[in-house]
Amino acid sequence: MEKRKKVIAFFKELGFEFDIARFDDRLIAQKLVCLLELKGIDLGYSCSLYVRGPYSPDLTKDLFAYTPEFENLETGSRLNTAEKEAAGELGRIFGLKPVPLEVGATYGYYAIRQDCDPLEASRQVKRLKPFYSEAQIALGISKAKEFLYKPTRKDLEDLKKETDIWQRASLKTLEH
Question: What gap in Å lies between CA 150 and CA 38, rounded to an integer?
Answer without folding.
Answer: 13
